[in-house]
């Protein structure tokens, strides 16, 4: 409900002092998250597009993208098609995508799914 993937049957979800329903774009611009299986552009260079679409976008230059990819342990293969990635590699990329715009709240649904013990 916080990510507006499911509507509440009663009441309202409030986050950061406002209604998620009436201020969806602004509220979700402050939230990062992945749910079950992250979806991506064909190449990892799609991460700048993810950031551009955020209401609360930071200057998503290559340095920031490299920083979050390094943080999640996914620095290698930056030009490889995502379709060639293992489930664990996609999961790491999903976490990087959730962190890219430096959100105030992060919602991760089964973030360790498919990751090796080091992940």
Account of the 3D structure:
This protein has 119 residues and is α+β, with helices and mostly antiparallel strands. The protein is built from four helices and four strands. It has helices spanning 24-28, 47-52, 62-71, 87-99, and strands at 14-15, 18-19, 31-34, 105-108. A two-stranded antiparallel ribbon has the order 1-2. Strands 3-4 form a two-stranded parallel sheet.
Summary, kept brief:
The protein is of the alpha+beta class. The chain has helices at residues 24-28, 47-52, 62-71, 87-99, and strands spanning 14-15, 18-19, 31-34, 105-108.
State the helical fraction.
Answer: 25-40%
In quaternary terms, these chains amount to single chain
Per DSSP, the total helix count is: 4
Measured by DSSP, the beta-strand proportion falls in 5-15%
- Count of strand segments: 4
Alpha carbon gyration radius: 15 Å
Q: Give the rounded overall mean pLDDT.
A: 76
Q: Note the gap between the termini.
A: 28 Å
Structural class: alpha+beta
Strands of the widest sheet, in order across it, are 1-2
Instruction: Label the overall shape.
Output: globular
| Largest sheet properties | 2 strands, antiparallel
Order of helices and strands: EEHEHHHE
Low-confidence sequence ranges? none
What structural keywords apply?
119 residues; alpha+beta; two-stranded antiparallel sheet; two-stranded parallel sheet; globular
């Amino acid at each position: 409900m916080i990510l507006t993937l499911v509507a509440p049957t009663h009441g309202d979800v409030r986050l950061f002092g406002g209604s998620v329903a009436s201020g969806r774009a602004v509220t979700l611009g402050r939230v990062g998250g992945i749910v079950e299986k992250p979806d991506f552009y064909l190449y990892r260079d799609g991460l700048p597009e993810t950031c551009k679409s955020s209401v609360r976008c930071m200057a998503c230059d290559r340095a920031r993208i490299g920083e979050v990819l390094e943080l999640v342990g996914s620095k290698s293969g930056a030009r490889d098609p995502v379709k060639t990635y293992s489930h664990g590699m996609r999961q790491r990329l999903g976490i990087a995508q959730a962190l890219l715009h430096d959100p105030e709240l992060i919602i991760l649904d089964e973030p360790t799914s498919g990751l090796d013990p080091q992940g």
